[in-house]
Write a structure and sequence with these properties.
- The complex is a heterodimer of chains A (584) and B (577).
- Chain A has 3 domains: 171 residues, Up-down Bundle (ABC transporter transmembrane region fold), CATH 1.20.1560; 114 residues; 238 residues, 3-Layer(aba) Sandwich (Rossmann fold).
- Chain A has 584 residues and is of the alpha/beta class.
- In chain A, α18 links the parallel β9 and β10.
- Chain A is built from 21 helices and 12 strands.
- In chain B, strands 6-9-10-3-11-12 form a 6-stranded mixed sheet, with helices on both faces. A 4-stranded antiparallel sheet of chain B has the order 2-1-4-5, with helices on one face.
- In chain B, β1 and β2 form a beta hairpin.
- The interface between A and B is large, with 163 and 172 residues.
Chain lengths: 584, 577
């Protein structure tokens, strides 16, 4: 199997992310507006405190009674109660909304992943998609559950507090505005650098964890080959990188924190000074100055939250862009609506390249009769797997054609292609779930036990499945009962038997099964698949010996093609191999 | 500026791993200077915050209410000065705390990595790898957090005392209300925290399961897109996703109550303090400015309180994390150096496994075929001294030699051998023997085509555990690595099980020339390989029953023939039916 050029999945553009976000919020207009109104009311109730305290100070200065104090305090308590109740429902509503939006996001993502073009799935590998599945979904969960609502509430609170401060008197705007320049300058400077800085930091911790994991999992190899120093140098290098990343973000914060602290401090001091000056001029009351000072101080908390959550939101938006990007993979199949006439598989003058200018197949011709069993052998890197993928309709050839019944394989819609050709590779996967679920997915979840057991029998797996205490109900996959690689391959083959396509392409599909058992399996499989076309890429010679015809693939070409006997008589590379293996 | 300690340390030191508490104390001792600095700055930072209400109160009283512009200016500038001190001290506190966090976290990782390499083959036998791995992902953060919170906790304690003293000197009643009321409020939230944590935990567990399901779907995407079943899995995901959503709503129901209480409880406190203060003010006991200051204290006191709760939580977690670290650090290698090691045997000494009776001739390639096949792996483990067993090397037993001597001269490369991430050349040429020897090792392992497919050749970065390579490619690289190490005795366990017949034959042809003048043992059942080695030892039930060339054994030992070419016999049987 040759390493295919990695296709990195696309990332959604800023415009696409915005469009998606707007569409999502528009879906729940009532819940959104209700939550926002409740939060606004709660913020308003909170603003009563400074005003009432200002009034109290004013009253104390003018001389007042205990009764008056009691009344003001009672009003203060009432507002506190209102704020508490409003907050409770506002929070609950936004939690509910957040959970709903988040569920929709992740379900959309999984649906899009499940609709990825089969060619992309085969050649891109799962690395990129796995990262998106684990890291980005989690990051987005954090943003949607916590960062976004907190930020929205903070913006709302800050705006209302500012309005309340202005309501005390227009003059309060002047000290507030004094704080804006250091805040904006510091914030712009910081945000331009923060995202990359923190991404680098996160990546460095992922690297530390990966190196440690490797060292631990490969501990025996480390000892066997004396790699102790290698590994320790590696871990220390990862720590050095992490430290460099940490120092950089620490530098960012060392500049940023003081600048915002000063931005918060200036308005408070200025309000006191300016308000005091106005009071001496008789322009405002003592209660106004007190209320204004307290409002300006109250602004600090929401503004600080707005500022500190911003970089979190940046990271969340980046995750969202990666999750949405999966929906933007162009389909590589073009259904033309032509119907195959028969099941004859044919490749004519096929050339193929993963990267332009580097053909890995050079003018391959191959005609496979219906019901014929073909074995493909050849050294690794010769292009066997690539030819297998083309014959299974995963990729279109660069030139020439691969057809079933006269119709190009990539012209068929995926659902129809599966009825004609299916590919099983040595990369197997056991899903978390029961054995029954693992098998039935090949028939869309509908199959009775007798059919499942028959399929298992065809791959020599019925015996061990029935020996399990829970039989078909045994839970397997990660966290369940561990299956060996050979058993996993048997499951993969049983799925194929259930799917029952006309043509099967097996790419080293029995390579992990003990050689002695593999041959028996291949024979019982052949009996079940009687009348089906089988193209098997094999690394064991007995598989070739048992086939109707053998194709030797070398350097991207079919160099020998014929029955086992014909090839042995021809004394080419196959014959040489056979005699060596056979020990004659 | 707060000088940041240069990390990582050259050597993390020798940890005290007798108990979690001792380990934490060991960590603290190793960084006490930066911890003390962080605490000092933490105290300055929090106390300046605590006295701000008093300054505002004085500005109102002496400046504004008294219409004294000089006093107003003086107190405003004082406020500005304290604010600047607070900002500076806060930044310094943060810098020292980050240093403390990093020192503890990095040191722990270094310790665990060193312990893992020291334990070697013993490690996977004694502890689940997940347990060690979680130290590198979670526990390091918990230990770091414990060091980080110390500075803020110190500030919290001192500032709480400062405010309490200020209030007590103004009014005993108010002082007592604060000193008693604040802890009571803290405890009032307590009963709600337990059920909330429970629901949080339940949701997090479900989220973990959901994430696993998504990972499972993506890992098996080839199967799903190749054969079908997308709908089944999508339905299942939606079902679980909706369950997580319900659990999230259940958390939200409780969390929203807690959020509301976090407003109500401090709010009540503020109302009570203001009420008492206003009554005193009306009676002329305190001034208007002091009333404003009381309001400020009441709001400020919530900060030290929250810090105290945080401190307790973080140290409880750190204690658990330290327990895990200590368990790993306390492990000792199975194979230890003998008290008085023998002298090294000379080059070319014969290796003899007493239990099976296998004698490994020097300078030749010897293949091992076993029935049952697991015996080959056990024998290879004994020859490399990974398992107890009586193995003599020349005149001395393997157990009488220092382990590093055995590891240097005898290399066992088993089928589970790991490929590590890093530059490919470094990963294959582990003993630094140079490009010439590297090329010839790659040639022998028939791995040139692997290189050709790589964009940067030998400079390519190998991804974690060599995942980007196929099974056959990985196996050939692992083989090339063992060959490039060029040890005196090389034991290869099933070195070609994942490669095709063409390639296997090629490797077998090249192996002999490559290992000329060296001793090689290989376990296999492949006729292609057996046909190209010097001797074959055939074991039944762990004992050598035949020794000779492949062709001799094929001719003379029926059981051997039956085992190696079982296929042939069954074919004849099949033909006979």
């Amino acid at each position: 199997m040759s390493a295919a050029a990695p296709t990195i999945l696309p990332v959604a553009t800023g415009a696409q992310v915005r469009r998606y976000a707007v569409r999502l919020l528009r879906k729940y207009p009532r819940a959104t507006s209700l939550a926002l109104s409740l939060h606004a009311l709660a913020a308003l109730a909170a603003l009563a405190g400074p005003r009432l305290l200002g009034d109290l100070v004013e009253d104390v200065e003018q001389g007042t009674t205990i009764g008056r104090v009691n009344t003001v305090i009672a009003v203060l308590a009432a507002f506190l109660l209102a704020q508490t109740v409003l907050t409770r429902f506002a929070r609950y509503l936004s939690f509910t909304l957040g959970e709903r939006v988040l569920a929709e996001l992740r379900e959309d993502f999984v649906q899009n992943s499940l609709a990825l073009p089969v060619g992309v799935v085969e050649s891109a590998g799962s690395g990129d998609l796995l990262t998106r599945t684990s890291r980005d979904v989690e990051q987005l969960g954090w943003s949607v559950r916590w960062a976004l609502p907190e930020w929205t509430i903070a913006v709302l609170t800050a705006a209302l507090t500012f309005v309340a401060a202005i309501a005390v008197g227009w003059w309060v705007a002047i000290p507030c505005l004094l704080g804006v320049p250091p805040l904006v300058i510091g914030l712009r400077w910081y945000l331009r650098r923060a995202k990359d800085g923190y991404l680098r930091e996160n990546a460095s911790y992922a690297a530390i964890s990966a190196s440690l994991t490797e060292t631990v999992e490969g501990a025996r190899t480390v000892e066997a080959l004396g790699l102790q120093d290698h590994r320790l140098r590696r871990v220390d290098a990862d720590i050095s990188e992490s430290f460099a990343a940490e120092r950089y973000t620490l530098f960012l914060r060392t500049v940023f924190f003081p600048s915002v602290e000063v931005a918060y401090l200036i308005p408070t001091v200025a309000t006191l000074l300016f308000g005091g000056y106005l009071y001496t001029q008789g322009a405002v009351s003592l209660g106004d100055v007190t209320a204004a000072t307290l409002y300006v101080q109250m602004l600090i908390d929401p503004v600080d939250r707005i500022v500190s959550i911003l970089d979190e939101l940046q990271v969340g938006a980046a995750s969202l862009a990666r999750l949405l990007g999966v929906a933007h993979v162009p389909d590589d199949r073009e259904a033309t609506g032509r119907r195959p006439d028969g099941e004859q598989i044919e490749a004519r003058d096929v050339r193929f390249a993963y990267s332009p200018g580097r053909d890995v197949l050079h003018s391959v011709d191959m005609s496979v009769g219906v019901g014929e069993r073909i074995a493909m052998v050849g050294p690794s890197g010769a292009g066997k797997s690539t030819l297998g993928r083309l014959l299974a309709g995963i990729h279109p050839p660069r030139t020439g054609a691969v057809t079933v019944g006269g119709v190009g394989l990539t012209e068929l819609p995926l659902a129809e292609l599966r009825g004609h050709v299916a590919l099983v590779t040595q990369e197997h996967h056991v899903f978390v779930g029961t054995l029954r679920e693992n098998l039935a997915l090949a028939v869309d979840g509908r199959a009775d036990d007798s059919r499942l057991l028959a399929a298992l029998e065809a791959v020599d797996a019925r015996e061990w499945v029935e020996a399990l205490p829970d039989g078909l109900d045994t839970v397997v996959g990660s966290g369940g009962r561990a299956l060996g690689a050979a058993q996993a391959q048997q499951l993969a083959l049983a799925r194929l038997v259930l799917a029952d396509p006309h043509t099967l392409v097996l790419d080293e599909a029995t390579s992990l099964i003990d050689p002695r058992a593999a041959r028996h399996l291949e024979r019982s499989l052949a009996a079940v698949l009687h009348g089906r076309t089988v193209i098997a890429i094999a690394h064991r010679l007995f598989s070739a010996h048992d086939a109707d015809r053998v194709a030797v693939v070398e350097n991207g070409e079919i160099t020998e093609f014929g029955t086992h006997e014909e090839l042995v008589d021809r004394s080419g590379s196959y014959a040489k191999l056979w005699s060596s293996w056979h020990g004659s | 500026m707060g000088r940041v300690r240069h990390l990582p340390l050259e050597h993390p030191g020798v940890a005290d791993h007798r108990s979690p508490l001792r380990f934490l104390w060991w960590l603290i001792r190793g960084q006490w200077r930066t911890l003390v600095m962080a605490m000092l700055f933490g105290i300055v930072w929090m106390v300046s915050q605590a006295v701000m209400p008093a300054v505002i109160g004085l500005a109102i009283d002496e400046g504004i209410a008294a219409r004294d512009t000089d006093a107003l200016l003086r107190w405003s500038l004082t406020l500005l000065g304290i604010g600047l001190v607070q900002a500076a001290a806060g930044t310094m506190r943060h810098r020292f705390s980050v240093t403390n966090w990093l020192t503890a976290a990095y040191r722990t990782v270094q310790l665990v990595a060193r312990q893992a390499t020291d334990l070697g083959a013993t490690l996977p036998k004694r502890v689940a790898t997940g347990e060690v791995v979680s130290i590198g992902t979670n526990d390091l953060a918990h230990l770091g957090n414990a060091m980080d919170i110390v500075a803020r906790a110190a500030g919290a304690v001192v500032s709480f005392l400062v405010v309490a003293v200020i209030l007590l000197t103004t009014s005993t009643t108010l002082g007592l209300v604060v000193l008693i009321g604040v802890p009571v409020l803290l405890l009032a939230v307590g009963p709600l925290l337990k059920p909330l944590q429970r629901r949080n935990l339940a949701q997090r567990e479900m989220m973990g399961e959901l994430a696993n399901l998504a990972t499972d779907i993506v890992s098996g995407l080839r199967v799903l897109r190749g054969i079908g079943g997308e709908r089944v899995f999508h339905d299942r995901y939606v079902r679980e996703s909706q369950e997580v959503r319900q659990a999230g709503v259940a958390v939200g129901r409780l969390q929203s109550v807690l959020d509301a209480l976090q407003i109500l409880l401090p709010g009540i406190f503020v109302v009570v303090v203001v009420w008492l203060g206003a009554r005193f003010a009306v009676q002329g006991q305190i001034s208007a400015g002091e009333l404003v200051a009381f309001y400020g204290y009441a709001a400020f006191l919530m900060i030290p309180l929250r810090t105290a709760t945080e401190f307790a939580n973080k140290w409880i977690r750190a204690f658990v994390a330290a327990g895990r670290v200590v368990r790993v650090l306390a492990l000792r290698p199975e194979v230890s150096a003998p008290d008085s090691p023998y002298a090294e045997p000379p080059v070319g000494a014969e290796l003899v496994d007493v239990r099976s009776g296998l004698r490994v001739p020097a300078y030749q390639i010897t293949a091992i075929v076993s029935d049952p096949p697991e015996d080959s792996t056990r024998l290879a483990d004994r020859l490399g001294y990974y398992a107890e067993g009586e193995v003599r090397w020349g005149e001395v037993p393997l157990s009488g030699l220092r382990p590093e001597v055995v590891r240097r001269r005898i290399v066992v490369s088993d089928s589970d051998s790991a490929l590590f991430s890093g530059v490919l050349a470094d990963q294959v040429d582990i003993r630094g023997r140079g490009p010439g020897s590297l090329d010839s090792a790659l040639h022998t392992a028939s791995a040139e085509d692997v290189l050709e497919a790589l964009p940067d050749g030998m400079a390519t970065m190998v991804t974690e555990r060599g995942r980007s390579f196929s099974g056959g490619q990985r196996q050939r690289l692992v083989l090339a690595r063992a060959l490039a190490a060029d040890p005196e005795i090389l034991v290869l366990v099933e070195p070609t099980s994942a490669v095709d017949a063409h390639t296997e034959a090629r490797i077998a042809d090249r192996l002999r020339a490559h290992r000329a003048g060296r001793t090689t043992v290989v376990t296999t059942t492949s006729p292609l390989l057996l046909d190209r080695v010097d001797n074959v030892a055939f074991l039944r039930d762990g004992v050598v029953v035949a020794f000779g060339t492949h062709r001799d054994l094929m001719r003379e030992v029926a059981h051997y023939r039956h085992l190696v070419t079982r296929e042939e016999l069954s074919e004849e049987e099949a033909a006979g039916v």
